[in-house]
Design brief:
Number of strands: 8
Largest sheet: 3 strands, parallel
Strand content: 25-35%
Helix content: 10-25%
Shape: elongated
Distance between the termini: 67 Å
Radius of gyration: 26 Å
Order of helices and strands: EHEEEEEEE
Number of domains: 2
Structural class: mainly beta
């Protein structure tokens, strides 16, 4: 039987449980392949790491786009609709948002909230 492990970082000094599990599965004759999303940054590792026979593949994670720009809530109020006879306006705000609070530009809900009563 072949088993694959997908780990954030391997080997890692604090991951004693995973290391012990890998060593035990190898002792039982299972074939393992370890995929690590990051290269280890620690120079010190558990002594048992030298006993691991499994193939270790370090996967380079995909490049993520930059986070969305933080925009003051008032700037999102450009989506204003006239309500009634123009006495009040409705703007599109995320649920639970407050004036003066910055929000991510990509997280706007289409549920109008009156700006005045």
């Amino acid at each position: 039987m072949k088993i694959a492990y997908l780990l954030k970082t391997f080997p890692k000094l604090s991951e004693t449980f995973i290391l012990n599990e890998i060593l035990e599965l190898e002792r039982q004759g299972l074939e393992l392949h370890i995929f690590s999303l990051r290269q280890p940054s620690e120079t010190k590792v558990q002594p048992g790491v030298a006993e691991v026979r499994a193939r270790i593949t370090h996967i380079r994670p995909p490049q993520l786009p930059p986070p969305p720009e933080r925009v003051p809530l008032e700037k999102l109020a450009h989506k204003v609709q006239k309500s009634g006879q123009g006495r009040c306006a409705k703007a599109v705000f995320p649920p639970g948002a407050r004036a003066g609070q910055g929000v991510a530009a990509g997280r706007v809900h289409a549920s109008p909230r009156p700006l005045c009563e």
